[in-house]
C-alpha cells in the first residue's frame, strides 16, 4: 500500500481449530472466519483506518430541497489555519456527473440544488473539527425555490433536471383488456420512505499514488463500478484508481454513497496527502439512497369462486432528485404487481419520476416490497367481499412452475407457492396471553405502557411474496474467481464483497467440498482483481459462488489427472471424500494432503448465467434469471383504543432451492423478517417540504430486540433450481418483501380497518365503535 497508509484494511482470520472440529463443505453450518473478531470488537472497519500525514475531510451540504445557487465564496474557508484544500464543482477535472443506474447527479451542485443535503463543497484540514468549521465557513448565496415534493405533480411541473421529470414509464399489457369479473375490489395504497440505516455510517480513506492516481479504502459493495465512476470524475484512467474494500459493517443496499467517495478522492489528489472522511449519522441520512415512496392504485376482478380474472394497477415511484436505480425498481414493481398468483389478464401502468425529495435507489426488495403490500391488501378485500377464508382464497390462485407471469415469461424455476402457504396455514397458532398482572408486558404498549387488556384484539394475516434474483432486463451478470492451492492451503481470490450475506463462508465451503481441503482462506477484495459485480439479489451465491466452484473443479482436475494417469484410469473415476482420494474400485486410496505436497495448483474461471432481455413497449419479455418465493403468517395483538401493535409471531415458509449453510440461512431469513417489521410498523423517514426531519436514529425508529417476535421457520422447501450452480436461491430479500404485507393483513383482521399505508400509523388501527 502506498504512502504507508491504512494500518488496518481487513480482519486477520483467527487461527484454525483442530480439523476434527471443523464442519466441512456445503450443507454444514461453517462459522464465518471473521465472527470472533466482530464479536470481540477488533474487526477493522473503514472508520478505523489511519495513515501517516492524514488530513480530515468535511462536506458542505445544501439546507434547501430546491434552490438556485447565486454564488459560492470559499475564501473564508481557505484562509482558516489548518485548512489544506477546498473543492467545489470548479475543481472537478473529469465528468461532473455520476450515478448508479444513470449518470445524472453532479459531484457538487453548481447552478441549482435539487434535494436537501446535496453536496456543495468539501474541505480537507489537519483536524476534523477544523474541517467541519471550514465547511461551515463556505458562504453560499441561495435563491430558494418552491420544491416539487408530490410525485403526482411532477408530470405537470417544470423540469427539475435537464433530462426531465419522467425517468421511466412501463405500460404492461397482458391478455384481454375487456375481460371482467363478477366481483371487483379497488384500493389505493401508500408506502413510506425507508432508510437502509446501515450499522455504521459511511467512512473512507483516500491515498494519492506516485503515478498521479489514487487509492480509495472504502466499504464498497461494488468496487469496480465505483472505481470506474471515480476514474471518470477524476479524469484518470481506470488503472490509476484502485479501490480496496475494507470491512463492511452490514449492507442491505448499495452500501456506499458515491457522492461521499468522490469528494474524498478529489481532496487527496489536490493536497497530495491521505484524506479521511467519516460521515455523521445525519450526513449518512442526507447522502445515501432510500426506499422509494410509492403510490399504488389497484382494481382486482374475480369470478364468484374467487379466481382472479384481471388485475389493473397504477404504480408511481418517487425517485427523488436523481434517477439512480429507479428504472430497475420500476421494472420489478410492474412485473410483480400481481404477486405469485395466476392472473390471465393484467394491465399495469408504472412510472418513476423525479421530485425534490431525497434520492431513492436500491434497498433490499425494491419495487417488489411496495406492490406486495398492495396486492395482498387487495386479496384480503376480495376474501372479505366473497366471504372466503383469506388463506383459502390465496390457495385458489397461487402460481406454480409452468405458469406465466404478466410479462409473458414462463416460470421455469421451482415455484412451490401452494406448499409454502399450506405450511404456514397448518402451523399451530400461538397461545392467547393470559389476562393477569404478571403478563402486562404482553400488551401492545409494552412494559408499564398504557392500555387495557380488554381493548386488545388478536389478528391473523397472510402474505405471499416474490422477488427476482440477480440483475434483470439484459444485465450482464458475470463473475471471475481464482482458486490457488499451495502446501495444502487453498486461497480464493474473488472480488465479491462480503456484506454479511456469507459469501466468504460459502466460498470456503465450496472449496472444502470440491477439493477436500480443510484450510481455506478468502483474499481481501480490491480492484486489481477481475470484477465480480454488486453484492445484491443473491448474486454472489449464484454467480460468484459458481465461479469459485468452476475454478475449484479445474484445480481438482489438475490434482487428479496425474494420479489417474499413473493408474491407467480416467480422473472422473476418482472421488474426493473427507480429504481422501479413492477410485471407484477401491484400488486407489490416498489423501489429498499427501498428493498436494510440494505442489502449487491454481485455476481461474468465470460464471455467467443465461441472458435476459429488456421489457418491450408492452411490458413483455423474459426479463428475469430466476425467482424466489415466501409465505408468512403473521399473528398480532392490537390495542384498538390506542392503535398500538405488537407482532406476536411470524411463521415463515420459504423456497430456498438448496440449503448451503443452515445456520447462516436461518440468520438471513430472521434478519429479513425483522427488517420487514420495521417497514410495517416503525420506519418512516419524514420529509415535510422535502426536508429530512430528524436525520438520526432517535427520529428514525428501527425495530430493536424488544420488537422482534417469535419467528418460526416452519418449512424450507429444497427444490433445486437447475440453472443455478448449486440449485440455491436468494434468501434475504423475499422475507423483507413479504413480512410487511403479512403484518398489515393481520392488523386488518384484528381491527376490520383497511390499513392502506405503510408504516401502519396508530390511527389506522384504532376502532372507534365496536
Automatic annotation (TrEMBL):
InterPro entries for the chain: Ald_Oxase/Xan_DH_a/b, Ald_Oxase/Xan_DH_a/b_sf, Ald_Oxase/xanthine_DH-like, AldOxase/xan_DH_MoCoBD1, AldOxase/xan_DH_MoCoBD2, AldOxase/xan_DH_Mopterin-bd_sf
Ranges of compositional bias, category Low complexity: 1-21
Highest taxon of source: Bacteria
SUPFAM superfamilies reported for this sequence: CO dehydrogenase molybdoprotein N-domain-like (SSF54665), Molybdenum cofactor-binding domain (SSF56003)
Annotated ranges, domain Aldehyde oxidase/xanthine dehydrogenase a/b hammerhead: 40-146
Location of the region described as Disordered in the Swiss-Prot/TrEMBL record: 1-35
Name of the protein described by the UniProt record: Xanthine dehydrogenase family protein molybdopterin-binding subunit
Amino acid at each position: 500500500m502506498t504512502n504507508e497508509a491504512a494500518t488496518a484494511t481487513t480482519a486477520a482470520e483467527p487461527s484454525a481449530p483442530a480439523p476434527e472440529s471443523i464442519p466441512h463443505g456445503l450443507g454444514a453450518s461453517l462459522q464465518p472466519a471473521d465472527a470472533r473478531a466482530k464479536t470481540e470488537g477488533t474487526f477493522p472497519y473503514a472508520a478505523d483506518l489511519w495513515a501517516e500525514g492524514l488530513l480530515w475531510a468535511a462536506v458542505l451540504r445544501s439546507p434547501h430541497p430546491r434552490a438556485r445557487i447565486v454564488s459560492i465564496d470559499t475564501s473564508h474557508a481557505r484562509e482558516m489555519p489548518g485548512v489544506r484544500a477546498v473543492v467545489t464543482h470548479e475543481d472537478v477535472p473529469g465528468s461532473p456527473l455520476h450515478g448508479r443506474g444513470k449518470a445524472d447527479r453532479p459531484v457538487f451542485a453548481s447552478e441549482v440544488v435539487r434535494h436537501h443535503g446535496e453536496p456543495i463543497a468539501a474541505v480537507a484540514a489537519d483536524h476534523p473539527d477544523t474541517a467541519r468549521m471550514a465547511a461551515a465557513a463556505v458562504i453560499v448565496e441561495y435563491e430558494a425555490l418552491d420544491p416539487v415534493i408530490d410525485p403526482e405533480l411532477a408530470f405537470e411541473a417544470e423540469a427539475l433536471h435537464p433530462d426531465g421529470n419522467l425517468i421511466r414509464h412501463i405500460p404492461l399489457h397482458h391478455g384481454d383488456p375487456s375481460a371482467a369479473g363478477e366481483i371487483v375490489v379497488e384500493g389505493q395504497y401508500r408506502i413510506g420512505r425507508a432508510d437502509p440505516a446501515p450499522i455504521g455510517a459511511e467512512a473512507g480513506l483516500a491515498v494519492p499514488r506516485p503515478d498521479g492516481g489514487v487509492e480509495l479504502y472504502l466499504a464498497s459493495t461494488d468496487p469496480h463500478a465505483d472505481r470506474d465512476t471515480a476514474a471518470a470524475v477524476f479524469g484518470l484512467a481506470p488503472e490509476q484508481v484502485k479501490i480496496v474494500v475494507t470491512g463492511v459493517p452490514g449492507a442491505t443496499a448499495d452500501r456506499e454513497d458515491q457522492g461521499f467517495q468522490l469528494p474524498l478522492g478529489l481532496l487527496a489528489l489536490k493536497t497530495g496527502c491521505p484524506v479521511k472522511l467519516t460521515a455523521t449519522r445525519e450526513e449518512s441520512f442526507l447522502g445515501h439512497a432510500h426506499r422509494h415512496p410509492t403510490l399504488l392504485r389497484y382494481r382486482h376482478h374475480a369470478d364468484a369462486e374467487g379466481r382472479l380474472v384481471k388485475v389493473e394497477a397504477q404504480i408511481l415511484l418517487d425517485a427523488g432528485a436523481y434517477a439512480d436505480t429507479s428504472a430497475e425498481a420500476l421494472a420489478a414493481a410492474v412485473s410483480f404487481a400481481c404477486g405469485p398468483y395466476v392472473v390471465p389478464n393484467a394491465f399495469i401502468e408504472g412510472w418513476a419520476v423525479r421530485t425534490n425529495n431525497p434520492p431513492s435507489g436500491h434497498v433490499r426488495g425494491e419495487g417488489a416490497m411496495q406492490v406486495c403490500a398492495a396486492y395482498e391488501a387487495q386479496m384480503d378485500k376480495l376474501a372479505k367481499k366473497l366471504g372466503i377464508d383469506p388463506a383459502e382464497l390465496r390457495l385458489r390462485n397461487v402460481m406454480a412452475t409452468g405458469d406465466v407471469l404478466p410479462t409473458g415469461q414462463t416460470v421455469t424455476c421451482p415455484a412451490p407457492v401452494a406448499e409454502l402457504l399450506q405450511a404456514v396455514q397448518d402451523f399451530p397458532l400461538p397461545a392467547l396471553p393470559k389476562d393477569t398482572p404478571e403478563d402486562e408486558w404482553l400488551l401492545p404498549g409494552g412494559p408499564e405502557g398504557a392500555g387495557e387488556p380488554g381493548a386488545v384484539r388478536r389478528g391473523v394475516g397472510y402474505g405471499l411474496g416474490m422477488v427476482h434474483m440477480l440483475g434483470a432486463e439484459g444485465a450482464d451478470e458475470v463473475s471471475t474467481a481464482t482458486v490457488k492451492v499451495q502446501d495444502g492451503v487453498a486461497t480464493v481470490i474473488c472480488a465479491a464483497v462480503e456484506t454479511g450475506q456469507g459469501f466468504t463462508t460459502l466460498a470456503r465451503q465450496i472449496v472444502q467440498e470440491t477439493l477436500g481441503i480443510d484450510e481455506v482462506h478468502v483474499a481481501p477484495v480490491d480492484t486489481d482483481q477481475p470484477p465480480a459485480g454488486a453484492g445484491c439479489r443473491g448474486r454472489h451465491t449464484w454467480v460468484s459462488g459458481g465461479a469459485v466452484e468452476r475454478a475449484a473443479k479445474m484445480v481438482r482436475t489438475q490434482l487428479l489427472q496425474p494420479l489417474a494417469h499413473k493408474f491407467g484410469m480416467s480422473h472422473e473415476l476418482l472421488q474426493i471424500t473427507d480429504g481422501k482420494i479413492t477410485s471407484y474400485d477401491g484400488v486407489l486410496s490416498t489423501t489429498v494432503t499427501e498428493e498436494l505436497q510440494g505442489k502449487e495448483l491454481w485455476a481461474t474461471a468465470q460464471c455467467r448465467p443465461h441472458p435476459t432481455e429488456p421489457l418491450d413497449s408492452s411490458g413483455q419479455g423474459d426479463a428475469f434469471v430466476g425467482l424466489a418465493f415466501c409465505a408468512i403468517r403473521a399473528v398480532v395483538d392490537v390495542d384498538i383504543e390506542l392503535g398500538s401493535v405488537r407482532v406476536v409471531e411470524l411463521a415463515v415458509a420459504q423456497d430456498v432451492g438448496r440449503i448451503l449453510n443452515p445456520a447462516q440461512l436461518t440468520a438471513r431469513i430472521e434478519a429479513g423478517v425483522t427488517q420487514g417489521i420495521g417497514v410495517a410498523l416503525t420506519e418512516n423517514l419524514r420529509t415535510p417540504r422535502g426536508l429530512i426531519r430528524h436525520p438520526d436514529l432517535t427520529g428514525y425508529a428501527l425495530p430493536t430486540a424488544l420488537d422482534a417476535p417469535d419467528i418460526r421457520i416452519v418449512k424450507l422447501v429444497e427444490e433445486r433450481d437447475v440453472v443455478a450452480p448449486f440449485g440455491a436461491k436468494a434468501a434475504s430479500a423475499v422475507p423483507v418483501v413479504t413480512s410487511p404485507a403479512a403484518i398489515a393483513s393481520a392488523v386488518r383482521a384484528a381491527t376490520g380497518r383497511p390499513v392502506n399505508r405503510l408504516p401502519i400509523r396508530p390511527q389506522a388501527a384504532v376502532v372507534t365503535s365496536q
